[in-house]
Amino acid sequence: VRLLTLRVANQSLPPNWVTNPEPGVSRLGGKRLFSVLAAPKLNGAESLSSLKLRESALVGRRYESSAAAVDSSDAPPAEKFEYQAEVNRLMDLIVHSLYSNKEVFLRELVSNASDALDKLRYLSVTDPDLLKDGPELDIRIQTDKDNGIITITDSGIGMTRQELVDSLGTIASSGTAKFLKTLKESQEANVDSNLIGQFGVGFYSAFLVSDKVAVSTKSPKSEQQYVWEAEAESNSYTIREETDPEKLIPRGTRLTLYLKRDDKGFAHPERIQKLLKNYSQFVSFPIYTWQEKGFTKEVEVDEDPAEVKTEGDGEPKKEVKKKTKTVVEKYWDWELTNETQPIWLRTPKEVSTEEYNEFYKKTFNEYLDPLASSHFTTEGEVEFRSILYVPATKKEDITDRKTKNIRLYVKRVFISDDFDGELFPRYLSFVKGVVDSNDLPLNVSREILQESRIVRIMRKRLVRKAFDMILGISCSENRDDYEAFWENYGKFLKLGCMEDKENHKRIAPLLRFFSSQSNEELISLDEYVESMKPEQKAIYYIAGDSLSSAKNAPFLEKLNEMGYEVLLLIDPMDEVSLTNLNSYKDKSFVDISKEDLDLGDKNEEREKEMKQEYSQTCDWIKKRLGERVARVDVSNRLSSSPCVLVAAKFGWSANMERLMRAQSIGDTSSLDFMRSRKVFEINPEHEIIKRLNAACRINPDDPEALKAIDILFETSMISSGFTPDNPTDLSGKIYDMMSTAMAGKWASQPQPAQPSQQPAAPSSSEPEPLEAEVVEPVEAGQQK
């Protein structure tokens, strides 16, 4: 026991402050002061002198002693060791090039501390004496921002002298050759070398930010406490026995980082607390940080004295008026930083909807409740826990490949939220949530995420759960819920039809479309199939640029008469989505704007008669149109329109041709190979076609008849959704035809007769020609 008189913050402490033989505990006037391993919280009303002393004793300020210095010559000398060759190389890589995100050092060191506590707890099951008379199992982090020092202390299993050499002097047990080989390959491939911790080298991440690292550790298996020290640029380290009574700990490890000049910002308490909340918030042991706090109190303030008259001698006396003010008294104390029980580790039945929503808002900085959530645990060959959410509003664009919507944890330690389709496909990138796995390594590189069998299994199950969650929204009694979802994320699911063939059966029931019978409301494919006619063989659809144009297209005429419902695809992604699905519930998708439409109502005798009657007319029209059409057929899909232009079975529809033309840049000739040759279908029941049939038989070379064919073809292009090659020429032909049709109609009427002229003859039922009135005026007088 040494008797010391100390000056702390220029305040002299009384000599009754005695260091206690019990490690980590001091006494002052009978009051017990705890070290970093067992520090209770103090209320603001506690003794201020005690608080100030604790601040000085724990923050690590310099002490000046009036007593004689302890002779250190009796202390055993430090032993110097050379690093294993691979460690030396690894240290150089870590310090200079391996890792760009330096802040992960804290995650790695806290994870190591948590592992030490886990190991102690495991061993104590068979050896309870390991926990006897020891501190609570926790992690405590203290910073000195002025000197750039971070101290991380755990009360875990600790290490013996030999374990220090084996664990911190070599990495043979962690697969050195494999680590260095993987590192070399990743550097040659120019990919992210996020490998620290993957091969058990997490401790060396301390040198990312430190010039010097000291590890003071005490194992229950050893009577001595040892200190391991090394510098970042050195190829050796030292190990010595700890002889300073003030630095002894009952059990565990104290890691001290002496930060580099450029990295001293990590020593701010607020920065440490922020990093812990991000990376280590759900570590299974409590993590305390040394934080500045304060409490308010009333203090007296002296005012100017006032004169008060007294009785008797009459001499006034001065009286001081008392006044108080509120001040904030600052002190330092331990503060719990993490939540030791993550919400996803609880049983779903124990968690309320409000708790799920609160966790979602807090984790992802949202202000609206999610549309849905799913909390599940997957067991078997791969085990992980997860909570997934569907946000109420869309923040990501469908073209965004990278999002920060999924937070991956390994053993409750945050690993990353920067993914590019490894856990969720791009079309489900809007799903937010957390995933916690015990099977992945603590530090997961991009290569592992892409190649790991565990990750592939996790992805498959996460996608399945996401679909179940979305299906739950679609089955909600409140139809508005899914309408809101579809408005935000409908395009994402359509993208899934194109990119994920394996999940077509899960995506298809979630799709929504307009139809010819839905009164401008979206319907599902299930609703369409349920309302199909018994004789209907397929799911019919047509694509257009607007709801009005699709609904009034001539292709629908016969189907409307038969009562068949037709899906109206007006979104640019709709048509591609359905063509990728190909079928739904054994019903194939059929585009009614393409050739060979089978409506199941064929009358073979009637069709044969029509083809025979109009075969000559079809050949005549084909000869006139030439290469503009592949052939001319008699149509079975028209009822009121004279003709229609349909696309080839395996070519682009009119809508797809329009979209591809709009997306092409520069020369569009490269698109010609996909532009289908059109089929010109005529309606034999229409009056115009009947007259053309007569013209073909009477005078096939009549210019007016040939001109009518041209106009009929080009106007059918417009009504069928195609764009005429020469709109100006078409408009000129229409103007000529209008002039011919209007000739002689609404002609100028004769001017009324003047008073000096003879009165005009009364009008008859048939107006006389104007020439007759001028040439033969006498007849008019005779009539009179």
TrEMBL record:
InterPro entries referenced in this protein's UniProt entry, alphabetically: HATPase_C_sf (IPR036890), HATPase_dom (IPR003594), Heat_shock_protein_90_CS (IPR019805), HSP90_C (IPR037196), Hsp90_fam (IPR001404), Hsp90_N (IPR020575), Ribosomal_Su5_D2-typ_SF (IPR020568)
Record keywords: ATP-binding, Chaperone, Nucleotide-binding, Stress response, Transit peptide
Example GO molecular function: unfolded protein binding
One GO cellular component term noted in the UniProt record for this chain: mitochondrion
Biased composition (Low complexity): 747-767
Residue numbers spanned by region Disordered: 743-784
Family per record: Belongs to the heat shock protein 90 family.
Listed name of the protein: Histidine kinase/HSP90-like ATPase domain-containing protein
Organism: Aegilops tauschii subsp. strangulata (Goatgrass)
Lineage: Eukaryota, Viridiplantae, Streptophyta, Embryophyta, Tracheophyta
